[in-house]
């Protein structure tokens, strides 16, 4: 990401046009938050197709970087995510999606509710500590 | 990101070793949340140096992709972010940092508290709507 020309930055930041900025792989990062608790559930990526499907259906779609395929969250796990709101950041290279998770409420593929289940502690010599 | 071998995935996901996985540019994405409100303030990136500085000092440091430089958030704006907690996701390619913002509480360079100040609405023909 190089710095944007001021006019372009202003249009992105203050305009009403949705102009998501994909990276060199055609992806935009998406932070997914649970509506009821505001817990951050996961960080994943969308491509143009996944974003279009999400907007059209109101159900979260991502792009799986490991499988290189469109990924309708919950197709195999039952963890379908109903979109409550979608927001874009100032320079339109990140999304914040608020969802109501379906199924058993465990969004992480490890069987936990959130992918963020370990804290980094220890300062200069960090180690991980599992959250309660 | 290709799929990880099962043993490597297990170590990343269930282990106590902090092994952040940087992308091809040497960066890891960081979601920054305000401790008091749980509002998502911003999404930014860290490189190994920024992460080390953050862990050593307890103050948020990022890597500015536009300026290609270490960025101690608040050095020019007063918006220093005191780290309350840092978490890593299952496969250790994303960070979730909870902070107490300093200064006037406006984390976004546009003068707003959060970078996420516009909703995407309209389904298949999306437009942006400013939040209250």
| Beta strand % of chain A | 25-35%
Question: Which oligomerization state do the chains in this entry correspond to?
Answer: homodimer
Question: Largest inter-chain interface?
Answer: A-B, 51 and 51 residues
> What kind of sheet is the major sheet of chain A?
4 strands, mixed
Determine Rg of chain A (CA atoms, Å).
Answer: 16 Å
Question: What structural category do the secondary elements of chain A indicate?
Answer: alpha+beta
Strand element count of chain A? 8
CATH topology description of chain A: Ubiquitin-like (UB roll)
What is the name of the CATH superfamily of chain A? Phosphoribosyl-AMP cyclohydrolase
Strand order of the largest sheet of chain A: 2-1-6-5
Features of this protein?
homodimer, 132 residues, alpha+beta, Ubiquitin-like (UB roll), four-stranded mixed beta sheet, two-stranded antiparallel sheet, 8 strands, globular
Structural summary, described in words:
Two copies of one chain form a homodimer. Chain A is an alpha+beta fold. Chain A has a single domain, classed as Ubiquitin-like (UB roll) (Roll). Helix content of chain A is 14%, strand content 35%. Chain A contains two helices and eight strands, in the order αββαββββββ. In chain A, the strands form three sheets. A four-stranded mixed β-sheet of chain A has the order 2-1-6-5. In chain A, strands 3-4 form a two-stranded antiparallel ribbon. Chain A is globular and about 50 Å long. Chains A and B meet through β1, β2, α2, β5 and β6 of A and β1, β2, α2, β5 and β6 of B. β7 of chain A pairs antiparallel with β5 of chain B.
């Amino acid at each position: 990401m190089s710095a944007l020309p001021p006019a372009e930055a202003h249009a992105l930041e203050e305009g009403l046009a949705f102009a998501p900025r994909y990276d060199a792989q055609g992806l935009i990062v998406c932070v997914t938050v649970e509506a009821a608790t505001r817990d951050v559930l996961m960080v994943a990526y969308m491509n143009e197709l996944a974003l279009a499907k999400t907007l059209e259906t109101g159900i979260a779609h991502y792009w799986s970087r490991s499988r290189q395929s469109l990924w309708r969250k919950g197709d195999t796990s039952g963890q379908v995510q109903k979109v409550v709101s979608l927001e874009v950041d100032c320079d339109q290279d990140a999304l914040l999606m608020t969802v109501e998770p379906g199924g058993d409420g465990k969004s992480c593929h490890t069987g936990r509710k959130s992918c963020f289940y370990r804290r980094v502690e220890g300062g200069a010599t960090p180690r991980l500590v599992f959250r309660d």
